[in-house]
Amino acid sequence: MREEHGLSLETAAERMDWSTSKLRRVELGAVGISVSDMRMLATLGSSRDLAVSAPTKGAKSPFGGPNCKIGAPGGWGPRGRGGRGLGRLPVAGARWQAASVTERGTGSAASDSAPSDKRPGRGRRWRRRLAIALAVVLLVTAALYVGNSSTLAGTPPGGPFLLAHRGLAQTFDLAGVTNDTCTAERIHPPEHPYLENTLASMRAAFAADADLVEFDVQVTRDGRLAVFHDATLQCRTDGTGTVAEHTLAELRGLDLGYGYTSDGGRTFPFRGKGVGLLPTVEEVLAEFPDRELLIHLKVERAAEGEALADLLATLPQQRRDTLTVYGGDVAVGAFAARLPDVRVTSKKIMKDCMVAYLAVGWTGHVPDACRHRQLHLPQRYGRLMWGWPNRFVSRMREADTRVIVVNGSGEFSEGFDDPDDVDAIPAGWTGGVWTNRIDVVAPLLGR
User: Fold this and answer.
1) What is the CA radius of gyration of the chain?
2) What are 226-268's pLDDT values in tens digits?
3) CA-to-CA distance for 229 and 236, rounded, in angstroms?
4) What pairing do the DSSP bridges indicate for beta strands 323-327 and 25-28?
5) DSSP letters along 5-52, please?
6) What's the rounded Cα separation, in Å, for the pair 187 and 170?
């Protein structure tokens, strides 16, 4: 048996104890309504009546017991029509069904809530839009892959060109090396007789099939361009101070092999064998008139870059085309300002190129920041470049820029120096490979 009991909110509120936060029941005839439910229903306004269903014998509630349903006008409930369910009210023996709230004195239903959007075509339109968006994303992804995939482009003809760092030099353990480490004191047991940055080491490198030799340059006290790596003399030589504090004649009198040891100082296999071996840039250029050279400005001063530019400006354009200069931003910037036709690179130049290329390289376009440059890239950065590896190298070559892959993080001139290193070179690589052991790596690469 079903009864309807109408009770105004004002009357219900008078019977409620609002002073406690606990759910308390107010018995309204046969109906029990919780305090929290009454607070919720108060939002309907005091001018409306509340209609609830009386208990129906045997009905079960979703909560495990009987209940009734309170409704708001114009909405919907789990059962019945005309009322929007606001809450389930546990009532002894009640049926779970919709009740109605009507305007007092009119009997007409009113709605306080937004109508439900039941337009049948709305879901289909959203699904269609989502499908179109996904199709566009897939097409763009496919186009980017096809346009930048080295795999699809196939293996380019030829092989890598090899850069011999400091000629054929003694290598050393890189573990724990910092800018202040004396690397001559931690060399590996010698496997050849050459000392870095000497004419003999450069000859040996070219004889081992190097395509390009790198060497270091500093300005002496008397304005000459000496070939020497370290910031100070005392690590490798029997001298002290800096190159800039000595004349060329004084530097030539030093023993370049004095400090080399592989056993913690028990023996010095090159001591006494390096006197008079320090060359100048002019001598290197004269010794290898038709070979490619990479010149490293070791001191970060504008005067160093200007001095080198003044020297190279005396060479024919054809000879300058075989030279590349790199170093710190200040020194290289000063050099390029005086001699802009020579290929250069520095950290800033490489960063500017890579940032610009990342923005537009997906189109295949090479920005101006990457033209007529040389990039020394660790593989971990190279992998970020559009078209890496072979499409990227090809695009840069068309822009008169050479790409040379270096090992590890690129710090402290890490090179590809043994069979394990060579295995890490990208397949089909036609760019440059940086090595400190050209005698080992060239045969491994089929040279």
Assistant:
1) 41
2) 999 999 999 999 999 999 999 999 999 999 999 999 999 999 9
3) 10
4) unpaired
5) EEEEHHHHHHT--TT-SS--EEEETTEEEEHHHHHHHGGG-TTBEEEE
6) 7
